[in-house]
# Entry
Amino acid sequence: MDTGQGTAMIDDSLTLPRAAEAAPRIDCRNIKVYYGQAQAIHDVSMTFPDRAVTALIGPSGCGKSTFLRCLNRMNDTIENCRVEGEILMDGENINDADIDPVLLRSRVGMVFQKPNPFPKSIYDNIAYGPRIHGLANGREDLDAIVEKSLRRAGLWEEVKDRLTAPGTSLSGGQQQRLCIARAIAVQPEVILMDEPCSALDPIATARIEELIDELRNRYCIVIVTHSMQQAARVSQRTAFFHLGHVVELGDTNQIFTNPREKRTEDYITGRFG
Amino acid sequence: MTDTARTSTPSAAAAKHLKRRRAADGRFRYYGLIAILAALGALAVLVLTIGSQALSAATYHVVRYDVTLDPAVIAPEGANRPADIARNVDGFYGLVRDNLLETFPEAESDRVSRRELSDFVTRLAVLPTAKMIANSPELVGGDIAMTAPLNDDLDLYLKGQGVRERKIKAGQITAVAADGQAGYRVTGAGAFDALMAGLAVANVGRAKGAAQVDVLLTAGVSTGRLTDITSGSARLELLTGKAADFSNSRPAARIIVSPEAERTISDRQIAWVLALKEMGRVERVPRWTLLTNSDSTYPELAGGLAAIVGSLLTMLVTAMVAMPIGILAAVYLEEFAPRNRVTEFFEVNINNLAAVPSIVFGLLGAALYINFLGMPRSAPLVGGLVLALMTFPVVIIASRAALKAVPPSVRSGALAVGASQMQTVFHHVVPLAAPGILTGAILGMARALGETAPLLLIGMVAFVGDVPSGPTDESTVMPVLIFSWSNNAERAWEPLTSAMIVILLAFLLLMNGLVVFLRRKYERRW
Ligand SMILES: Nc1ncnc2c1ncn2[C@@H]1O[C@H](COP(=O)(O)OP(=O)(O)OP(=O)(O)O)[C@@H](O)[C@H]1O
Ligand SMILES: [Mg+2]
# Structure
């Protein structure tokens, strides 16, 4: 069970040139989200650094998924959902009218709670994104992208002999890694993960966590999780959401060992939620 | 509630409750079983009645005529080009009639007999032979064995339908003697005992003085009518053949229960057809003409080809109009349209449209397409458009249901890798919904294929003797043909109607089979 077996062979050609290390990848200012009349996110401001994992934790219904969806404008696809505020990615407001959400989503990948591979072959699952974005010239190029993405998601060794098998024929954990590979294949800069392990057993979860740990070296990762241990294990920064507010945001170590807020401490120690 | 209330040995009250629940379960299962049995029973009755009727129409009797193709008759001077030969119905019919008169010279005597004999073949029945000869003119002048279908009433008679009769074997006839009154006396000790017993049964309940039942006596190719029957002798009135055939024979007697005046065939015709059969000139063959001929006023010549082609053309128009409109409308409404008052209004009205009785679409079609747009009456084009109006709401509803059933996770998965909405819909959602969409579309088409009422209103009920060559030709369709045939009075149409129903059902089954096949094919992929 070594997810790292493929990483040695990966070159860096997939990673894009990065902005200066210190500058935050994403800068959210005064985000408010409404579902019709109901406000789900109240004036949240926070930043996400590059090459680091930020965990969003909080009780159910506090708005973690809603906030995460702001970052790739998936909220646009939800009827009656309205987002206010600025989200700057590399200094550009992604909510600007002249930003194409389709292009944005190729820069900000997303992995969902339930693995949702396309009902197509494993190969096509990965190749679909590069194809529609024209990232590959020719079949060989595409093959290389597929292999690289699968290697990076630690799935190559398991599926290299059955790339034409349907993606849905994989196990739940493999499917989730397939979805991660699918997100990686379009060369994103940011990867959003909404409870990626909640449908998986502890072993599959451990693999995904190892994977996230590796991906951290190349991407800005935001992960929503209900597991305190997971947040503590994989993230460098943690934000605690409650009722649509960010109650506390800081280094993961500090949040879990020495929370400033009473509500955070109560939640982490399981006294409510 | 205390903890003791929930143990595995329930209290009396709980046991009673449990028993009631179980009884309700059992009852429900029982009702379900009854419902299924009732449905199966109804289906079995339908299949048996229609199937047995159709089976009798699946074959028919043809008669062989050995004729010489006299050029003077078939291809007279001035009318001997192949096209003339192909149209020379009179000539070929004359050959057949002469052949019949040669076989049964007694029919020459009077006009009624001649007509009864020429009724054996309808004039148009010789057309295929005429065409065949026109295609190989070198046969003119030679001898051929041509076949033509037997008149429908005689065909039914040979199939044991139409005329109620009882066959009884007579005893040994020892003597036949002319009685000086154009008849013969046939004698044989006790030869007619069995026949008399049968007659007694046949006459039970018959009013005194009512028409007597007829008795025919047949020996070889000869048949006569029996009267004055006693145990050992009877009077024989020869209908066809020679009296000598009866001496020293054990002839077959037929008690024909329906009196001659109430039948469509006469005693003489029965005698002749029995003789032809005895000569080995009558053969029961599969009735391919049901599929290769078009409508006719004569049941033995009628077929469904024109209607089948008309149905196919109509379905083609319906499919080309209803499927794209229905599917695209469904995709738009389900995937792109904003949810607001306007789309809601459309949705409600589409659902209402699907519930409108089909005849209303016929009225609409007649007014819109024929009166207003001036399209041709009775044409598959108009029929197809009318049926498309009727079908596309069904296609929309089915397609929307299929699109709704595609899990939203597929959409978000595609959107999240940066697919546009249209790419999401056409690369992922529609392929997944395709089996459902196709099922809905084909089932809608199947409904249209069986539709009669709206097509009556646009004039597709007209008699069509020719196969339509395009969607603007005058045409009819299978269900309308069934409707027209079922209105015909002659008995022979009844099995034909059933046979046509079976053909229509076969097409419907074919379409349903296509649905199953497509589902399998698409679903096997993932
Ligand atoms: N499509 C929607 N329409 C209306 N309200 C919504 C919608 N999605 C979420 N909400 C509301 O927004 C609030 C935040 O929901 P969200 O899904 O972001 O919570 P969450 O933190 O992800 O919860 P969980 O941990 O259970 O996934 C909830 O009160 C929810 O009811
Ligand atoms: Mg959530």
About this structure: The pocket of magnesium ion (ligand 2) is lined by residues A 64-65, 194 (CB under 6 Å). Residues 36 and 80 of chain A are 5 Å apart (CA to CA). Chain A has a mean pLDDT of 87. The longest helix of chain A spans residues 139-152.
